[in-house]
Structures are given as C-alpha cells and as structure tokens.
Amino acid sequence: MTQGPMSIDDLKRMAGTIRCDIIEMTCTAAAGHPGGSLSATDIVTALYFRVMRIDPANPQWPDRDRFILSKGHACPAWYSALAERGYFDKKHLSTLRKLGSMLQGHPDMHKCPGIDMSVGSLGQGISAGLGMALAGKLKKQDYHVWVVVGDGECQEGSVWEAAMAAPKWKLDNFTVIVDRNHLQNDFCVEDVMPVEPLADKWRAFGWHVDAINGHNMEQIVAALEAASKRKGVPTAIVAETIKGKGVSFMENAADWHGKAPCASEADQALCEIRRCICEI
Amino acid sequence: MKSSYRYILPEVQALLSSRDLFLKAKGEPTRLTYGEALLELGGKNPDVVSLDADVSKPMKTFLFAAKFPERSFNFGIAEQNMMAAAAGMATTGLIPFANTYAVFASMRALDQVRNSIHYPHLNVKIAASHSGITPGPDGVTHQAQEDLSIMRALAGSTVIAPADPTSTKMAVFAAAEYKGPVYLSFTRDPVPVLYDERFPFKIGKAVLVREGSDAAIIANRDMVVQALIAAELLSKKGIEARVIDCHTVKPLDESMVLRAARDTGAIVTAENNIIFGGLGSAVAELLVEKYPAPMKRVGVGNTFAESGPYLEVIDKFGLTARHIVKAVAGVLKRKPPRSAKSPVEPKANARAELRKSKTQAHAGRKH
C-alpha cells in the first residue's frame, strides 16, 4: 500500500479513525490503556501518515525512519496506525492482548510488523531510540528516529540520562515528543511528582525545544517537519495534550489511564468521535 | 602425575604445588585482557562498537576508543541509558559491546538488560568487570557476588565466566560470533595465565583440564586455578580429582557434568559467586533430575564480603583451594562404595553404573 503525504484534513480524519480503533480494541480486549492512547493519537497519526519515511511493504527497510512509543502502554494507538497504514490486516486489531496475538499488551518487535523496538518498561524506549540515532550517524544513513515519551515517564531517571547524551553527539536525526497529558496512573503528574518546568529542562540539557498543542494537526506537522530538517541538535517537542482526548467522559480523567470501556461506554465514545470526524 | 593436565601451561603445572603461584606465574586481570581483545576484534569486525560508562581505563577499552573513535561511545556514569542504547544499536546490525562493572551491568541496569536486550534477544554483548568478589579491596558495593545468578535467571541468556587471559580472549571472539545477548564476566584482580593456545573454547562446552576419577571439581572464572591447586593438594593424599573449567554457566554443558558424576560419583562446584543460583545451583539442578550424586557447593555463603586484598578476601569467605579440598573430603565420605576391585568403571558401563547408582540411592533412602 503506497500512500503520499496526507493533507491536514485527511490527517484529522485518520486520527478520528484511529481513535475509533482504540475504543474498539480496548473494549474488545476488556483491558488496555485508552487515555494515553487517545492523547498521543494526533502525534502518531502525523508521523505515520505525513512525516515519516517508511515503506509498510518493507518494514525492515534499513533506511526507514524509526518510531518508538516509549510509553508502550499506549500501543493501541501505535497498532491502529500500523494497521491503517497497511503493515498488517486490520482484523488483527480485535486480538489485542489475547493469547497468541501479535498485538501484545506492550509491543513486541518480533511479533508485530512495523514495531521497531519492544517497549513497555518506561524510560527505555528513548534510550533505544538514541542508540538507533547513533547507529544512523555511524553508518551514514539519513533516517530519523522519532520517540514519544509520556510526561509521567519523564519521572524515570533514565529519561534524563538519554536527554543528557543526545546533545553530546549532536543527534539532529533524533526527535523526542513529550505527550504532556498531565495525568499518570495514580493521579495528576504535578501531584505525584512535578516535572515542570518541562520545556526548560530539555532546553537546559541542550535540546532545541518546541512547545505545541498536541491536538492541533497544523502545529504538530509544522513542528515535526521542522525537526526533521534541523541540524546540529536533537529536538524535543513538548506537546500539550488531553488524556482521553475525543471522548467526553475520558478526557482529563486519570481513571481512564488503564481501564477499558464497556460496550455501552464504547458506543457513546464512538458516537462522539464519529461526530467530530464529520465536522472536519 | 603431571600428564593428567590438559591445556595447562607446563610452568603453571610446576607452580601449582607452590605457595608462590600467584607471585611467579604470568597473569593479569581478565578485564585488561578483555580491552586488548576488543581492540583486536575491532580491527577484524567493522560492526563491533564499544560502549563505555566511565570505566574505559579499568577495562582498557580506551584502546578501542583511541583506534576507532567513530565506533566508540562513552555514556558516562549512566549504565541504564547505555544498555538500552546498545539494544537500539543492535537493531541496526551493529554488534555493541557494553562495558561496565558487573554490579551495574547485572543490577543497576537489569531492567534494561532484561526488557530491552534479552526480551527481544538483541545482539548485545555485556562485558562485566569486577565480577564476583574479585574486586577485593573495593568492598561490598563493587563486589558483584550475585551477577552470574541474576544473569542466569534471564530467559535466553548466555553467561560466560572465563578462567584466565587465554580463554578470556577466546570468549570475546566467540561472543562476537554468537547471535544474541552474551554476558561476559571478568576479574578485577590478576589471575594466572593457565592455558596454552590449544584450549578449545566453545560457548556451552566445558573443558576437562585435569584428569581424575575419585571426585570432580567443576569450577569457573577465578576458581579454576583454586580447583587446580586443590587437586594437587588432594593428589598428595592419594585422591585424584578431575577438574572441569565450566566457563559457560548457561547453557550448562550437561553431558560433561553428567559424565563427571557417572565417572567419579562425587561432585564439588567452585564459584566466586553466591551459592544461590549460579554454577553450583545449575549443576545441582541437573544432577538432582538426571543423576543424583553426592555434591557440595563451594561459593559465597549467605553473607556479604568485605574489603581486603583479593586472595585474603576470597580465603576468608571460603573460596580458596583449602576450602575445596575440605569440600571434596566431605563429599567423598558420602560417596557410595564402589566394587572394591574396580574403583573406576569403564565408560561403556555407564548405563549399568547408572542402574547401580539408582539401586544404591534407593537403598540409601531406607536408612
């Protein structure tokens, strides 16, 4: 399936489709993490359908851009994007978390085509991405490595080990997007363990930092495309997002971090998301 | 009976009975051998990259960094980032060697080593110096007395603890050839060069380095030399102990261990590692399931060690030749009596021996 870069409106529609997939997947699985999947959806959509140099027919293409969802629990968004992009048949989405499925509760690079790194234990995907970026420079391949980390994930010390390292090697082929949805498993990030000033922290570690609205497709695409062209420094994009974005009763509710919707909740969620798609 | 040795340098054989072995025999810490081996490997294999965490001097990997600066990456004192970055590099076809001390490789960065390296079975080589309580003077925080146990517990892991500089170099080259994660453990303090270049290093294949049929001492890393010294002491008492260098803790060379149990009926393991979960446990697990035999584990007990000169520390914590001798004597007392006329049965009769042993085991149970 070959596909040119999508228009902004098409990206918005695709994000809606992916949000529907997330609701259906987690409802069918009766488990999973809808909140953080919905907050990261627009970013993941922009990457897979506009920005990244990839070939779904050749997932192991050595020169492909790499993507790592370091906050691996939000993988329903990743799986849906891969399926919608043609890496595998959409019918697999209903197998999420089931025995024998290629769609593990947290992503397995050897089970699912298009997954560039097995992730799930927070604070590691960013380091793996750093290693891929270093390898790209060493091998003189011009791919870009894109990593999405959670804001709660930024409490992991190893995130800052990676943050310290990337500017040392001037990894301008490396971009980290912080999904700043303000909620983590227990409560609000700022109540559990404050991470602010987040943009200043990345800047202080030597990164070029952009702060954007992580649900504004124009801003997302502009920031990602600028990052792909920037020279000499890695880019951190602090994307202000809403956990549960697109579903009224999930928005800004920590309870929906790791809870699946029941059938009636899923119906309501799908109605709301589809209404939004129609308004695009 | 010097001819009973295999691959052991003649000058080492001559010194095994002497108290001066560690003074007179040529030797070095295997961490330094590693650094030199990596340099040589780097010249032969352009995919090899070296990752440091601020111990490139103690591990001599600065040599690689000087010769191949573009393939060398110092992550600073940040082992977790280094391990997961190594995993990312391995996804692109590079062969990263991640160098640090064993406490940090196997414990501080264990989550990365498990989830980012072993779960996806990526081709990362973890080079760990200061393994076991080989760092005598540094004290407990730097004595990785659990590293082999921890690494052995990971699914799909390969865990290697070479005994001397000769086999260390072979292990480094073998690890680079092997596809998948390998944990290599090195000593902080010097060990004698035991082997000549004919030493047949192969991952997963233990090596019989001293013949003997009264008992078998299965050892690895810095305990192989202690086992050889112990065998000399035992020989003076008329006991001929087989010594096996079981450099690969996992996967265990089952056939070599079972053969030792069948041939000798008395097994002692010797490891500079806590007795829970390492070589001794591996051998015990195998024997209890396939060929129960009297056995004793020599290793660090349920305690942390302390600072001191290497040889004094390992002696205080029960890891020198005299402790192995004592263990062998104890196991021999528990060894079921064999038929008086043929203390050693030919290997062809192994099956019959197995049957007999089973009978004896049953008989023993009645008491």
Describe this structure in words.
The complex is a heterodimer of chains A (280) and B (367). With 280 residues, chain A is of the alpha/beta class. Chain A has helices spanning 8-29, 34-51, 75-85, 125-138, 157-168, 189-192, 198-204, 217-229, 263-279, and strands spanning 66-69, 145-150, 174-180, 208-213, 235-240. Helix content of chain A is 42%, strand content 10%. Chain A has a 5-stranded parallel β-sheet with strand order 1-2-3-5-4, sandwiched between helices. In chain A, strand 2 (145-150), helix 5 and strand 3 form a beta-alpha-beta unit. Chain A is globular and about 50 Å long. With 367 residues, chain B is an alpha/beta fold. Chain B has 2 domains: 2-24 and 199-336, Rossmann fold (3-Layer(aba) Sandwich); 27-192, 3-Layer(aba) Sandwich (Rossmann fold). In chain B, helix 3 runs parallel beside helix 9 (165-177), helix 5 (79-90) runs parallel beside helix 7 (110-118) and helix 11 (254-264) packs across helix 12 (279-290). The model of chain B is unreliable at 340-346 and 361-367 (pLDDT under 50). Classes of the chains: A alpha/beta (280), B alpha/beta (367). Chains A and B meet through helix 4 and helix 5 of A and helix 5 and helix 7 of B.
Précis, in short:
The complex is a heterodimer of chains A (280) and B (367). Chain A is of the alpha/beta class and 280 residues long.
Assembly classification: heterodimer
User: Which regions of chain A contain 5 or more consecutive residues with pLDDT less than 50?
Assistant: none
Q: Give a short account of the largest sheet of chain B.
A: 7 strands, mixed
Helix and strand string of chain B, N-terminal first? HHEHEHEHEHHEHEHEEEEHEEHEHEHHH
Total E-strand runs of chain A? 5
Our count of domains of chain B comes out at 2
Cα-based radius of gyration of chain B, to the nearest Å? 20 Å
Question: Strand order within the widest sheet of chain B?
Answer: 3-2-4-5-7-6-12
How many β strands of chain B by DSSP? 14
* Cα shape of chain B: globular
